[in-house]
Amino acid sequence: MLPYQNRGKKERKWLRTRYTRADRAREGQPHTHKAAAAAAAAPPMAAITAPPPPPPASTSCRLPRRGGPLTRIAAASSSPSSRFRPSSTRRPSSSTSFSAAGSSGGGGEILHVSPPSPPANPPGAPVYVTLPADAVGPGGRVARRRAMGASLAALAAAGVAGVAFELWWGVVERQGPGEYDWAGYLDLAAMARRHGLRVRAILAFHQCGAGPHDPLWIPLPKWVLEEMDKVPDLSYTNRYQQRNKEYISLGCDSLPVLKGRSPMQAYSDFMRSFRNTFEDYLGAIVTEVQVGMGPGGELRYPSCPTEKLNQPGSTSKLGEFQCYDKFMQASLSAHAQILGIQEWGSGGSIGIDGSQHNLEESSFFRADGGYWDTPYGHFFLEWYSGMLVLHGERLCMIADTIFSGTGVTISGKVAGMHWHYYTCAHPSELTAGYYNTLLRDGYLPIAQMFAKYKAALCCGCFDLRDAEKTNPESSPEGTLRQLIGAAKMCNLPLNGENSVTRLDDASLNQVIRSSRLYSGRSSGTSFSFNYVRMNKSLFEFHNWSRFTKFVRQMSDARTFLARLDVRRGQQYLSSMSVVWVVSRACAYT
């Protein structure tokens, strides 16, 4: 056959006409002027539309099964929350046909087979990152704004699902009762939205740091501290009359001790103001609200000061019962009177003596003949732990009422007090308010209370291994297994956290192993992990490489691609290039 250029003029014209008609016939277009005019006069055929084009390389697409239901999908722009796409993209093959169905309606609609519904609990777990505690400074404004923007861009590029940050009571309501300043936190949420990151808001009703000498010192509001100075019993108190001002004593939850309001009313007003201020963010950007329930934001008593929990040598302490302020003493006395045993309702717990490090020297905690396993011990520990559960239930009830219908999940955090898990009495758990011993499950009542209000459970210890503990009585893995077991029994969504900020391979691999204890559930409950917390070392090259690998592994080995908004459109940036931007911004120096 002769090449096209060497053929005669008439033959080349005939070939062009032939190919043009064939192409138009395949596309359903008229190939004559008369046919075109007739087609223009005919009514539009909205029911017959072209099949959807193949997806671009950066968008995931799972081909539907043949014979699936037909749906009508209207064209819409992508939302910021849909910027992360796994790289396992399938392109439709030439043998795949998309079905089209007709119905009356306007043009511009694309009709094709709908994809299969996602599984109830997809594999993998989204990763969140907690921002620095002083992301919003004491003055209520975003600190190191330029560095924060670069850091959020880097997290988005790594495939992180979102960020978590505390909204400190001492910052928001610092000026006076009922005077709220949310400007800095609104700005931070807007920055997260620009980078396609979801937000977990932690309503922090506790202090941050060990004292004014601490660079991350954020106390309770000044007007609250003034009331605590006037009435010292508003603070948690131990048998030595040592006061703890990390959090207001739960013994006065319902008493008007804060300038005419009770602590519960103050917490309620704070939540309601947050809901009204962040109304446009709730459900879409702010997807979860974690309610602070005690020291460190955890549902517990301050049996050991928070700043000492991670210090070597101090975590082996048994802890102190925090029931010696007048409000807790009044509650204990009333509880004993109701049961008709008034002699057990005065003076606090019996048998608390001896060393704070050796439980066998304590009459209450020793294994053989300790008060913890006597009728008095059962009475006291049921009251002490019951007061803590009641405090958590009051907060869950308030949060459930305020955030109902907003599309956000409420959650609370339980501490991992693992230092005496391999003993009979579990003293560090008992003094923290968890009635968990060799003979009793102390975490199931807390999980049942959370389930009553459909709240998620947050807990730490995901990075800790029994093998690295020098104390043979400690078992972070055993504590975590019991917490996860309680969450499973109550079908609670679970948020895991690391207890120590580190990025070594052993710790990250332990997080992955611990996460598998809960992930893969078939009941529809969800699991996610929250890395605590972002700092300058996270963006160092070797740490960043480990972290991005960790995010992929937690997400079931799927590679995330993040689209970052720039002024001249949207483009893809590699994680390493964003880390360079962070380093140029001198993040958190």
UniProtKB/TrEMBL annotation:
Residues 115-125 have a biased composition (Pro residues). The chain crosses the membrane at residues 150-171. The keyword Isomerase does not apply. Gene3D superfamilies: Glycosidases (3.20.20.80). It comes from the Eukaryota. The keyword DNA repair does not apply. Residues 7-19 have a biased composition (Basic residues). The active site is at 298 (proton donor), 497 (proton acceptor). It catalyses: Hydrolysis of (1->4)-alpha-D-glucosidic linkages in polysaccharides so as to remove successive maltose units from the non-reducing ends of the chains. Residues 20-30 have a biased composition (Basic and acidic residues). Residues 1-125 are annotated as: Disordered. Belongs to the glycosyl hydrolase 14 family. This is Beta-amylase. It comes from Panicum virgatum.
